[in-house]
Design brief:
single chain, 258 residues, alpha/beta, Rossmann fold, 6-stranded mixed sheet, binds adenosine-5'-triphosphate
Length: 258
């Protein structure tokens, strides 16, 4: 079984773990640890209910892990800070369902994204980046957000997160419910964001497309990390192929490291 989880990227930026999380008696995360290097793109793959959204919420400070966990960004442990301080530290989350302000215009949503103090001086530069990535948003800047298509709303949600000048942009199933052509556009935009040097942590159902832009990935099952590896290793892994890529039963053992 090839060992392929070694990180091939630069300095660790996010180092988190062991994260356990209970919803009442239900253990949604059971000692999850992961890291993301500067400029790295990492994907988290797992079936429905594996705990992927809960993990992103924990990393964004939106839910409180059990004692003993750390969420280190650079040298700082963010745990214990209120959720609104996480964007100040450089973490932005585009949640499932997008979380944009439906009654506000595109321009107003983007402006609100730049509320964090370190982002304010760079508002014009970030807006230019967002409009360059998503020209549709520039055309529609006065449109009320809720009247936009699902794909446009997802672009706006990502644009708003970019306005906060994140070091780490986390996306929870960004392609969910989007038409194939819009999904292709979305992943092209994510690939371009990756090129700007922002680290990405992506939870996705579209395994093929997300592995195509990711450097590395983790597998999650029932609240635990059950494997990890480079995108190439994951693509070649029989269990991944069977679970996510529609492959037939295995004939050759080809695992990823736990
Ligand atoms: P999906 O792909 O379906 O969104 P997921 O991998 O993101 O799944 P989570 O949404 O993190 O998984 O859920 C993990 C487990 O925790 C599931 O069993 C879910 O029912 C449960 N769960 C999530 N949020 C809550 C909550 N607020 N209260 C109680 N249980 C919850």
């Amino acid at each position: 079984m090839p060992k392929s989880s070694a990180r091939i990227w630069g300095t660790t930026m996010l180092s988190a773990g062991p994260i356990s999380l209970h919803y009442g008696k239900h253990l949604a995360l059971d000692g999850v640890s992961l890291d993301v290097a500067d400029g790295e793109t990492v994907v988290v793959l797992g079936a429905n209910g594996a705990g992927k959204s809960s993990l992103l919420k924990a990393l964004a400070g939106l839910v409180k892990p059990a004692p003993g966990a750390r969420v280190m960004l650079g040298g700082d442990d963010l745990l214990g800070r209120p959720a609104h301080k996480y964007p100040e530290a450089g973490i932005a989350l585009v949640p499932e369902g997008r979380g944009i302000f439906g009654e506000l215009t595109v321009a107003e949503n983007l402006e609100l994204g730049a509320y964090v103090s370190h982002a304010r001086p760079h508002e014009a530069r970030q807006l230019a980046l967002v409009f360059d990535l998503f020209p549709r948003l520039a055309e529609r800047r006065q449109q009320i957000a809720r009247t936009m298509s699902g794909g446009e709303q997802q672009m706006l949600a990502i644009g708003r997160a970019l306005m906060s000048c994140p070091r780490l942009l986390m996306l929870d199933e960004p392609s969910l419910g989007l038409a194939p052509i819009v999904t292709t556009e979305l992943f092209a935009a994510l690939a371009r964001i990756r090129q700007t040097g922002i680290a990405l942590l992506v939870v996705e159902q579209n395994v093929k497309a997300s592995l195509a832009i990711a450097h590395r990935g983790y597998l999650m099952e029932a609240g635990r990390i059950t494997g990890s590896g480079t995108s190439d290793a994951l693509r070649g892994d029989v269990a991944v192929q069977q679970a996510f890529l529609g492959a037939a039963a295995p004939s050759v053992e080809n695992g990823v490291s736990p």
